[in-house]
Structures are given as structure tokens and as C-alpha cells.
């Protein structure tokens, strides 16, 4: 029988003598890991079954650990640490027995708030960043629309100006945390510049404003406890002081924001993939077919060895990209390579491992099948594999 997901504990903290992490990283990871074992993993099966987790209460607790504001300024509720600590936190959040909660948490820390932290006014940071870093307010990021996902520049949600206010009309789709969020970091068209890279702004919008309606909870293949919303804006009035940074620079800010998101997404993938591999190794040692353990077949053993090797290579690529970022370099191509490779490897590892479990792999309450469903998203969201390839090839051409 497959082990019940709730009985599987998070693995021990990552090893010392690490190329990116020192003792203080490991101590932080240990605190987060203990929190997960005690407060998150025992509830995950129920939250997945209910197709919802209590974001407001859980985020308050996670906020107390400081995980939302790891690399954000101390005066706005952050810890003022560098990005390597965000990566170790993301990696540790991967110990949660589903990918939905690490994704929801990454929305708050690395998708909805980096631009606000980098370019927002003091007013916006006090109103939106500070309470989000403390976990007192839940945020979401509104970029994608029914008509525009990969092609971000072609979004249609638009504001026209009324005096000093923006009047917003349009809709967003696929918004993670959307039903439970207090505010949205919204990308929309705010001027008529003919360049669709210069006509957009990122705006902080409270989700209780008149004219905002939440649509259906979107049913998904995986990420079941994650809340995925459609959000409609009908003449929603927001003061222009809610624009993050410079009006018309939203597209550029969003492209920069994607880089943090992609590196964090890779970090979130490492632990589940390593657990899928180790659970499968254990299972294939125990399970005998034709009188021999499944793993005694060279084809199985070699496949597991190859996938373990590829996971190490992805890890090395991630750490290299993070070190480059810490050194102040543009990591757009490296972040895209790491996201592409990690997402593709997630499909390979979860599919091959599920196969090695036979019928037990095809059961619902098996962590391997849950990650098979959950991790499939990583080749689609946050920039699909093909968008990563287009970014990488664009940079290759620029280098020539
Ligand atoms: C569960 C979930 C959560 C999400 N959370 C959020 C969120 O919180 N906020 C948010 O703004 N968005 C979110 N998204 C949206 C996500 O980022 C988009 O789904 C993604 O960007 C892809 O856009 P699309 O779905 O419109 O696919 P499309 O853009 O229609 O692309 C369809 C397919 O076309 C192919 N393709 C795309 N571009 C190229 C290319 N350049 N070359 C060749 N082939 C290409 C790819 O195979 C791609 O999968 C979420 C999506 C899901 C499913």
C-alpha cells in the first residue's frame, strides 16, 4: 500500500559545506522545517480534500517566522537579508506535502511584492508591503487574462483617467490566492503610448473596492488547496498614488519581478523532486516482482540514477544563478534556463517514478501522484517552457 501522505515527514535540513548556504541559512531552514512538520503537514491532506487552505490564519503564522519579507527592508516588515535566504526558505517550503501552499506563499513573497519593495512609494509600502510581509494581509498578482497569458504585453485590462484617479475596467484570470487575498498587484494599461511595453503600470488595488467581483473557483488538475480566481473590474476607482513607481513602467517592472519568481519556483521544486526520488527508491527496494526487488532491474536503477544526477545539475544551475544575482549581474538567461530545465525535469521525474510504483502510483493518496499533478504546472505558469526558450534564444542572439 502507498504510505498515507500525512504520515510522511519533511526530510532533514540540507547539508552544511554548501556553496550558497552558511550556518545561518541552515538555522533558518531548520526553524521553517519544524514549523512545517508541526503546523502544516498534519493538515495538508484535509486542505487538499477541501480544495482550500486557510491562507489568512496560516499567513499570519508564516509572517511571524519572517518568511514573506526575507529580502525586504526591515522598516517595511522584512528581515533585510539577501536573496540567498529567500532561496533557502523557498527550498524549505518545498518540504510541504503539496505544492499549492509553497506556491501561495511565493506569490506573497516573490510575485506580488518585489516591484512594490523596489519601486513603491513610502505610502504604498506602509499600506501594502508592511502588512503583507507580516502576514497580516494576503496578496495576489494579477497579470494573466483569458486573452493573454504568455503574451503579457497584449493584456486588455485598462484604466482611464478621471482627474487624479484611475477608473479600471477589465478582468484577470488564473489569480492564485485571488479568493482570499486582501489586495492585488495589478498590471494594466494606463496610457495610450503606441508601445505596449510603455503603456502599462503596476497598481496596488484593495480587493474590497466597489466594482470588483470574484468569479468562480477554477477547478484544476492539481494544486488543489490553492485558490485560483477570476477577478472582474467594473469602473473600479483607485487613486493614482497607488501606481507602483513610474506610470508606464509596469511592463518593465513586471519582467524584472518574473526573475525572482522563476528562481524561487526552481527552489520550490528541488525538495519535492528529491522526495519523489527517495520514496521511489525505498518502494522499489521493498517491492518484489518475479522474485526480485523492482530496483534490481538495471533499467529502473539506471533511470533513478540518471534523474538523481539531473536534479543535482539543476540545483547547481540554480545556485550559480543566485550567486550571479547576488553579484549584481543580470540573471535573466540563467533564471530562464533553470526554470525551463527544472520544470521539464519535474515532468520526467514524477512520470517515471509514478510508473515504478505500478498501481500504487495511480492512487490518489500517494505523494508521488500528488506531485505528478501539482508539478505539471511549472512548465505552464510563470512563463511556459516555450517562453523560457524564446528568452534564452533572444539572449543568445544578443551575445553574437
Ligand atoms: C494554477 C495556475 C495558477 C496561476 N497563477 C497565476 C497568478 O497568480 N497570476 C497570474 O497573473 N497568472 C497566473 N497564472 C497564469 C499563467 O502564468 C499562465 O497560464 C501562463 O503564463 C500561460 O498563459 P496561457 O495559459 O494564457 O497560455 P498561452 O499563452 O495561451 O500559451 C499556450 C501554449 O502555447 C505555447 N506557447 C506560448 N508561447 C509560445 C512561444 N513563444 N513559442 C512557442 N509556443 C508558445 C505553450 O505551449 C503554451 O503552454 C496561473 C496559471 C495556472 C494554471
TrEMBL record:
- Cite the Acyl-CoA dehydrogenase/oxidase N-terminal domain residue spans from the record: 24-132
From the UniProt record, give one GO term of the biological process aspect.
fatty acid beta-oxidation using acyl-CoA dehydrogenase
Q: Which GO terms describe its molecular function?
A: acyl-CoA dehydrogenase activity; flavin adenine dinucleotide binding
Q: What keywords is this UniProt entry annotated with?
A: FAD, Flavoprotein, Oxidoreductase
Entry GO CC: cytoplasm
Superkingdom per UniProt: Eukaryota
Which InterPro entries does the annotation name? Acyl-CoA_dehydrogenase (IPR050741), Acyl-CoA_DH_CS (IPR006089), Acyl-CoA_Oxase/DH_mid-dom (IPR006091), Acyl-CoA_Oxase/DH_mid-dom_sf (IPR046373), AcylCo_DH-like_C (IPR036250), AcylCo_DH/oxidase_C (IPR009075), AcylCoA_DH/ox_N (IPR013786), AcylCoA_DH/ox_N_sf (IPR037069)
Q: Where is the Acyl-CoA dehydrogenase/oxidase C-terminal domain?
A: 248-396
Where in the numbering of this chain does the Acyl-CoA oxidase/dehydrogenase middle domain appear?
140-236
PROSITE patterns hit by this protein: ACYL_COA_DH_1, ACYL_COA_DH_2
Q: What Pfam families is this protein classified in?
A: Acyl-CoA_dh_1, Acyl-CoA_dh_M, Acyl-CoA_dh_N
Similarity comment: Belongs to the acyl-CoA dehydrogenase family.
- This chain's protein is named Acyl-CoA dehydrogenase
**UniProt source species:** Panagrolaimus superbus
